[in-house]
Amino acid sequence: METFAFQGNRLLAALPPADLERLRPHLALVKLPLGAVLHEPGSQMRHVYFPVSGLVSLLQALADGSVAESAILGNDGCVGTAILLGGGMTPCRAVVQVAGYAYRIGSDTILDEFHRSDALQLTLLRYIQALITQMSQTVVCNRHHTVEQQLCRWLLMSLDRIPGDEIRVTQELISNMLGVRRVGITEAATALQRAGLIENQRGRITIRDRSKLQARACECYATVRKETERLLQGLPGARAIVRQRAALQP
């Protein structure tokens, strides 16, 4: 399980063996239960998480209690990047939306290694840039594209960050993440199912035709994916990451 898990997170897989060996004693494999809050807004971050399965949403909350997702994280990266930038805390709430596992490391330890290792610093800074791209594109998508296009983007981005072709998620949760009415998500999901792109069951969505789903998505998905792939180029373990993506995607 441990060997698989290290390979299952793309950032850890990108590190040279010597850097990973220094981190290994400090990485604890922990469960990510559905609904678990990894970071609260304004609270000091004590850990960074490297997911190997499951999905974590970064949520922005308003005073009236409504929330919207600004980014979705999985085995592509890590949760807690504000620590690396010196902020120590963030206005976002990090919530587990699909249960899984992650490697957890203390904030002091990851900061020490971040300043010690050029490879780790390069890997994490490029990931942060990719994360900023995702956040920016999400704002554009939510403002200018249809609910169906937003749903396609969300499903594809989720699929990129977990193994397999099944996403255990409810329509209500997706509507909350996208900040749209549930009836809109229901209508969009029904249209995609009738077209044979997904199979929509209670609490679970299975992707049946990824290529057609991608064709119906807006440009935002391709923009984020292309920029993420560009940023992976030149990393010490970039080839390993590319092989993992190739194994998961058509």
Textual characterization of the structure:
It is a single chain. This protein has 250 residues and is an alpha+beta fold. 49% of the residues lie in helices and 20% in strands. It is built from 11 helices and 10 strands. The strands form 3 sheets. It has a 4-stranded antiparallel β-sheet. The chain has a 3-stranded antiparallel β-sheet with strand order 1-7-3. Strand 4 and strand 5 form a beta hairpin. The chain starts with a helix and ends with a helix.
Low-confidence stretches: 1-5, 240-245
Number of strands: 10
Estimate the global geometry from the Cα principal axes: globular
The helix/strand series, from N terminus to C terminus, equals HHHEEEEEEEHHHEHHEEHHH
Mean pLDDT: 87
Query: What fraction of residues sit in β-strands?
Result: 15-25%
Distance between the termini: 25 Å
Question: What structural category characterises the helix and strand content?
Answer: alpha+beta
Enumerate the strands of the largest sheet in spatial order, edge to edge or round the barrel.
2-6-4-5
What Rg do the Cα atoms give? 17 Å
Helix content: 40-55%
Number of helices: 11
What tags apply to this protein structure?
single chain, 250 residues, alpha+beta, 3-stranded antiparallel beta sheet, globular
Summarize the structure.
By secondary structure, this protein is α+β, with helices and mostly antiparallel strands. Helix content is 49%, strand content 20%.
